[in-house]
Design brief:
- α20 crosses α24.
- The strands form four sheets. Strands 3-4-2-5-6-1-7 form a seven-stranded parallel beta sheet, with helices on both faces. A six-stranded parallel beta sheet has the order 8-13-12-9-11-10, with helices on both faces.
- It has four domains: about 200 residues, Rossmann fold, CATH 3.40.50.300; about 190 residues, P-loop containing nucleotide triphosphate hydrolases (Rossmann fold); about 100 residues, Arc Repressor Mutant, subunit A (Orthogonal Bundle), CATH 1.10.10; about 80 residues, DNA polymerase, domain 1, CATH 1.10.150.80.
- About 45% of the residues lie in helices and about 15% in strands.
- It contains 24 helices and 17 strands.
Length: about 625
């Protein structure tokens, strides 16, 4: 088994001529018998990294996956590519499970997806002990860590399961969102043996991040306006509460927008139907809580709008990352208001901790409070948004991306160093015992009973910044928090305390406040060239014809359109205009099995279009 074999499998089953960044290294390590931990952004092709070696190794690869929808989607895609795969979960009857395991023993399946809870099932343990398990792959591996945003107790059973197999298989772990602490947890808790650790980076260059400071009805108007201006695009609108989901869904529905909704308050049947309506493009827009989305592999989501601020950067990056999985330019828009912070604090206070001991509960609450501060900092940041995200995940970039809302916003800069020193003096006088309201009230010299009670009216800093207003001081404090001059304690009653002020003592030190003027803005769509940009008018008409054919086939087959062929594959067809089997197999994403099932129908559609439009130039990239 070597790289040539892996490349052949990639081409034969998946239709790709070359590996993406990191894939070849990961596959090579697995084929050498090494454990692997890979951190790759959503859409970077994690599944290829374990599916290709699974087809080359003897025996069966078990893939531990947290959600039924995720398993079903992956298995559909594999079977469409000509790879025999199955899933074992609670959606199947015991007879169906027994039949699937029987076929697996006979060598029919090379890849089996299972929920972590299945690893305790006696029949499944017996099957595993009597079979050759070449690899155990842990998908969404951050679920094993209590510091990951989707902690799943069932993941803790994986190590015991692997340890009791007759022969230890290769263990590979994959995740898209992992801080340094979570990466360490994954490596230790899965007991990886001298693993090959591959981190391809967290950057999704095709995603455009922006934050809009809006409140109340202005959020509704923004969402309505954006969706109506992008009628042919598929998108997700996330809300913090079920109430917001219901209200926003009703508003969009009444405007005639083909929209559906999803939250935990709906019954299972309705949730399943609505999710399928979105995946199958019957309703291109879905309004949902964060209960929706994990395992959704829909490739053509062009925008994700957060109606409320999420509780953590991990949650935000995972949810926003559901846009643009096909690599095409997509929008990640967060609508922020101060009320969002209050909502998130309330939701975190109501968080349940089943099976977690008291000491860990305290630690997790502190972690959650810190994460909320980081998320609030993102919403208030005036620097590059992409860099803010990347730095949180440990990837330091010093150059602005020039592809986010902040990089394209016009700011005015004002030196507030003198004001910053008064903020430090005030915090020193309060001895770090009070929060923002007391500090700001003191600096403004406000006539408040509470300030007199604590003696703040006798501070040297009392009224020192009376020429400023409250908004200006809040912005300055946000800036100083971001730069580390002051820190905010975690907990229900957070206070402002001294940070690292050594730099501020230098003569050259400057605290520069960047502000912008709120105005009606159109969210940018001009940053990255789309694949369709290379198509001429005739080429785009052919693309629409191929999309219609794909939709018709998807309805016949009862599966999502993107599993037939994704948009990038259809665009490549328009550019290469294949006229034969060999030429169609040269299209990116067309493997041998898919050609056998669908290739001739697409060749016929292309031929019919060319016959009706002789001499048409379809693409600027056409040879």
């Amino acid at each position: 088994m070597n790289k040539e074999n892996a490349a052949e499998v990639l081409k034969k089953y998946f239709g790709y001529d070359s590996f993406r960044n990191g894939q070849e290294e990961i596959i090579g390590s697995i084929l050498e018998g090494k454990d692997v931990m890979a951190v790759m952004p959503t859409g970077a092709g994690k599944s290829i990294c374990y599916q290709v070696p699974a087809l080359l190794m003897p025996g069966i690869t078990l893939v531990i996956s947290p959600l039924i929808s995720l398993m079903q989607d992956q298995v559909k895609s594999l079977n469409e590519a000509g790879v025999h795969a199955a899933f074992i979960n609670s959606s199947l009857t015991e007879n169906q499970i027994a039949r699937a395991l029987g076929l697996a023993k006979e060598g029919v399946y090379k890849i089996i997806y299972v929920a972590p809870e299945r690893l305790e099932n006696a029949a499944f343990i017996q099957f595993a002990n009597e079979s050759t398990i070449s690899m155990v792959t842990v998908d969404e591996a951050h679920c094993i860590s209590q510091w990951g945003q989707d902690f799943r107790p069932g993941y803790l059973r994986i190590v015991d399961f692997v340890g009791h197999l007759p022969k230890r298989p290769i263990v590979s772990a994959f995740t898209a969102t992992a801080t340094r602490e979570v990466k360490t947890d994954i490596e230790c808790m899965l007991k990886l043996h001298v693993p090959s650790v591959v981190v391809t980076g967290f950057d999704r260059k095709n995603l455009y991040y922006s934050v809009e400071h809006l409140a109340g009805k202005r959020k509704d108007a923004f969402v309505m306006d954006y969706i109506e201006k992008h009628p042919k695009e598929s998108g997700i609108v996330y809300c913090a509460t079920r109430k917001n989901v219901d209200a926003l869904h009703e508003m969009l529905f009444k405007r005639g927008i083909p929209v559906t909704k999803y939250h935990a308050g709906m019954d299972n049947g309705m949730r399943k139907k609505n999710q399928e309506d979105f995946i199958y493009d019957r309703a291109p827009v879905i309004v949902a809580t964060n209960a929706f989305g994990m395992g959704i592999d829909k490739s053509n989501v062009r925008y994700v709008i957060h109606y409320n601020m999420p509780q953590s950067m991990e949650n935000y990056y995972q949810e926003a990352g559901r846009a643009g999985r096909d690599g095409e330019p997509s929008q990640c828009i967060l609508l922020f208001s101060a009320k969002d912070v209050m909502i998130d604090k309330f939701l975190l206070e109501k968080k349940e901790f089943d099976g977690v001991n008291d000491d860990d509960i305290d630690l997790i609450r502190q972690r959650d409070a810190r994460r909320l501060q980081v998320m609030e900092g993102y919403c208030k940041a005036t620097s590059c948004l992409r860099n803010y995200i990347l730095e949180y995940f440990g990837e330091r970039i010093n150059v602005p991306c020039n592809n986010c809302g902040n990089c394209h916003r016009e700011y005015t800069e004002e030196d507030r160093t003198a004001d910053a020193k008064w903020v430090i003096n005030c915090i020193a006088e309060t001895r770090g015992r009070y929060g923002r309201n007391i500090v700001i009230g003191t600096l403004l010299g406000a006539n408040r009973t509470r300030l007199k009670e604590i003696g703040a009216n006798a501070y040297k800093s009392f009224g020192a910044l009376a020429h400023r207003n409250e908004t200006e001081l809040r912005q300055l404090i946000d800036q100083m928090l971001a730069e580390g001059y002051i820190v905010q304690s975690a907990g229900e009653y957070s206070v402002l305390q001294m940070g690292d002020i050594r730099r501020l003592k230098e003569e050259t030190a400057r605290v520069v406040l960047r502000t912008f003027e709120e105005r009606e803005r159109t969210v940018s769509t001009r940053k990255i060239k789309r694949s369709t940009d290379s198509l001429t008018g005739a080429g785009f008409r052919l693309f629409e014809k191929l999309r219609q054919l794909r939709l018709a086939i998807a309805r016949e087959e009862g599966m999502p359109p993107y599993i037939i062929f994704n948009d990038k594959t259809l665009i490549d067809m328009c550019a290469k205009v294949p006229g034969s089997r060999e030429e169609m197999l040269g299209v990116s994403g067309v493997g041998e099995h898919k050609f056998g099932k669908y290739g001739q129908r697409f060749l016929d559609e292309i031929a019919a279009f060319l016959a009706a439009h002789p001499g048409s130039v379809l693409s600027s990239e056409a040879e």
